[in-house]
């Protein structure tokens, strides 16, 4: 289990927190290899940028290095593959999703002295770069491209509807626990798609250590237990959700599910 508090996560590099999370979910995560590979790439970056004195040109060279020479890129073919949320797999495959690629971009970029911050934008994770006396710029870690305010507004409308307006709070720096929570939800969703229920259950159990008694996490845990044929535990979790969220449309469906499970054979584990 992951024995880290919110303060612990905030005091760690985001990528180190993600590695700790990955390892808590799947003990096969190659933490030491990932740390060694990141150290190797950081040394390579320092050497590659050593002769560039202009900071903004140096940053452009770093972005070129990350996406063109190291060939990190968004996984367009299998976006929801769980490998995209495990840092060791991202380093090995050079593919990821915005939050995993963004965590690596932040790690290398801040170690190299660039003014970067992570932004938990509603549609996806972004990296903000803030040069003195200039307006902030936003990078899409999935592609390495700068994103305009117009594009951000369009993304927001696509997610929330035509009346949505881009507001300053959408572009605030996110703390690491918030990002890790979003990462955990993404990873759980991917593992459920892959029917890797034991690992998905670990995601839910971890989420409940951060937000105890969350009825939606407990509902999801019930679904996972049902897939694992632990019907009595699933019933208990579904009933908890029904009791605490009676007006949610899912509650009526779950009442039917509870009734069906109650009349099925009980499997003991």
Automatic annotation (TrEMBL):
Pfam families (UniProt xref): TPR_9 (PF13371), Transglut_core2 (PF13369)
Domain Protein SirB1 N-terminal as annotated: residue spans: 33-184
Bilayer-crossing regions: none
Superkingdom: Bacteria
PANTHER family referenced in this protein's UniProt entry, alphabetically: F-BOX ONLY PROTEIN 21, SI:DKEY-261L7.2
Family affiliation: Belongs to the UPF0162 family.
Protein's name in the database: Tetratricopeptide repeat protein
Upper lineage: Bacteria, Pseudomonadati, Pseudomonadota, Gammaproteobacteria, Vibrionales
């Amino acid at each position: 289990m992951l024995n880290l508090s919110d303060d612990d996560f905030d005091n760690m590099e985001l990528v180190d927190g993600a590695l700790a999370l990955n390892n808590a979910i799947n003990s096969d995560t190659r933490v030491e290899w990932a740390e060694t590979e990141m150290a190797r790439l950081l040394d390579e970056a320092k050497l590659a940028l050593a002769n560039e004195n202009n900071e903004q040109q140096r940053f452009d060279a770093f972005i070129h290095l990350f996406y063109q020479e190291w060939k990190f890129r968004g996984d367009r073919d299998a976006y929801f593959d769980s490998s995209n949320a495990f840092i060791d797999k991202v380093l090995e495959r050079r593919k990821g999703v915005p939050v995993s690629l963004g965590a690596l971009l932040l790690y290398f970029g801040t170690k190299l002295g660039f003014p970067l911050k992570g932004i938990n934008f509603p549609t996806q994770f972004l990296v903000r770069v803030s040069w003195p006396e200039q307006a902030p710029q936003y990078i899409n870690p999935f592609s390495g491209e700068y994103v305009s305010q117009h594009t951000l507004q369009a993304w927001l409308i696509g997610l929330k509807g035509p009346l949505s307006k881009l507001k300053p709070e959408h572009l605030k720096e996110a703390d690491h626990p918030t990002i890790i929570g979003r990462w955990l939800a993404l990873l759980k969703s991917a593992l459920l798609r892959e029917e890797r229920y034991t690992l998905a259950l670990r995601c839910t159990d971890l989420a409940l250590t951060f937000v105890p008694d969350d009825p939606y996490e407990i509902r999801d845990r019930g679904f996972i237990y049902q897939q694992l044929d632990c019907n009595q535990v699933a019933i208990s979790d579904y009933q908890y959700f029904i009791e605490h969220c009676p007006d949610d449309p899912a509650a009526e469906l779950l009442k039917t599910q509870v009734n069906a499970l109650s009349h099925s054979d009980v499997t003991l584990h």
